[in-house]
């Protein structure tokens, strides 16, 4: 963890910094240049030390005569990154950025323009809606919230019913992620406009649940599992969320028109839940995660997951799409873990699609691309 | 502006502080006690000076041996307040709070429990949805966003059409305010469940607009006014938003089923726009603002606003409800300005309802109460 990177970098940086698209209205900092460096800036006249904390590295900022601290990072990967500022030891959100939930906190994020950003851009195409849906969960004895994407024309065509994708966030994130930093609604709006994806409903819920009557059992360890080793979230999804969505939205409610996908922890959940419920789901998407996580050990399909994967031929008849994605820059254990899972699928003869997002790590541009690719294969 | 208040206060504070309901998940600070004092806390080991900035006053925090700074404010008014922390001269959001748009920035807010908080609580009643609705505005040549509240059963009763309230934020706020810190959706859910309000659609848009072809004229001064002294926002609302809402939602689209209300700047806009368009609106709500703002001078109805208010009898036949609200602790010029406006209405013989929110200032609890009162009189 070095902090001299900023000084070295400044001798060679290209000075074409512009305010990031993820900034608050009228805020000048942070900025991004054509090399994908981030220039942070904050006024803190009496501070002793101010740092930009991004991409696992801290960069020292320097103060000018007006008390404005600025500093420049190394080039960042394309896409969206969480970050923060450190002022005399306090980790705080940057007041210049919009705020996002991730890394287990609401805090700053920054958008680094990507070469392929057109696929998630806000364009002049028909737009669906993102609906905040509050509901009481009897199982968890708590209010929960999901966001439901309804495709363009949902309200204009009251006779039409739609397939449904259940789409899950990762660890440290929540139900706001996919429709904000994930841009799931814009990705689908654009795909539907180009007729590359069929109109569908997307349900984005929170992947955490605690069932009070099973709390003792759940304390045994994550992921929280209650009766019969079934996670609390699986119970809420199967017994409460899906029936509610099928009752309150115009869904096609057979397994042929229901899919589930998720990223990281949500990918692990997706594989576990769909494989436990192949009578309910026929499309499966696992972005940057598999159900053997975090192990990278070879897997024997005869014994893994109670043998659920051992009969490839049978699974290939049931599962319409098994889709795996990974960024080429993802850190350990993801490549090894996903790789071991793929080898297991190969050994069992389970068909799947595998996609690699070039130049991205365990971050949102990987998952935006995953959704973009995956959604084109759904419900066809 | 004194900073010794915290020290004085600490000698007598009641030590029953609990994390605020507006905190991020699992965050211990800020806290609120039964006296409605705020206890801020942030770890900043190397900082020289840390302050809590709330209610127009800054309170010094003190550091413990672990580098945790804490400090306690004077008792605050009931309701919701924007605030921030100051770390060695840097104004930053408190990483413990959720973030809200107001005071022209996304930043911290805190909920101080109110005696009457039940009316905006999340309760076990049927809930409507809040829908994010993206649209392209040809007039402003820009993408805009509104949030649309659809009442419970909107999707279950496809044959029913609903009246519409257009509800506006204040200066320095945006289209997120009413459905987040305003709790407009919960207020209506609760009222509808108790049959105290009729089910209605609420459209919450952003009260700013710039029409490029009128930009030179608009520069003449706020509020931005284009052709014929009509504000840019009025043009967008009348020509674009209302036709879009009537086309895309199941509205009752006559003037008898359309109202407009707003707070502060939005109240000023509401009076101007509704009085310019009495063929379109019949319900008018002005929360903490009137169209003579910021003047407190006596108003002559014969000449004010081109004489629009001079014929009270005619207005009383046209306007189904003219509703004004104010908090008892609002600062100058609001009491004088609203008072002068009321005197003008009295002089002209225009009937109106006047409500005062006890013990609240120019803040969101005033406006939540306004909506709660106003909504019960709508469309009946």
Describe the protein's architecture and organization:
2 copies of one chain form a homodimer. With 380 residues, chain A is of the alpha+beta class. Chain A has 2 domains: 4-113, Immunoglobulin-like (Sandwich); 118-375, Alpha/Beta hydrolase fold, catalytic domain (Rossmann fold, 3-Layer(aba) Sandwich), CATH 3.40.50. Chain A is built from 8 helices and 19 strands. The first copy, chain A, has helices spanning 5-10, 184-193, 215-218, 232-248, 265-276, 312-318, 334-348, 364-375, and strands spanning 18-19, 31-32, 38-43, 50-54, 57-60, 62-63, 68-72, 79-87, 90-92, 99-102, 105-112, 129-137, 142-150, 164-168, 201-204, 258-263, 283-287, 321-327, 353-357. The first copy, chain A, has an 8-stranded mixed sheet, sandwiched between helices. In chain A, strands 4, 5, 8, 9, 10 and 11 form a 6-stranded antiparallel sheet that branches. In chain A, helix 2 packs parallel to helix 8. The longest helix of chain A has 17 residues, at 232-248. Chain A is globular and about 70 Å long. Residues 1-6 of chain A have low confidence and may be disordered. The interface between A and B is large, with 47 and 47 residues. Strand 12 (129-137) of chain A pairs antiparallel with strand 12 (129-137) of chain B, so a sheet runs across the interface.
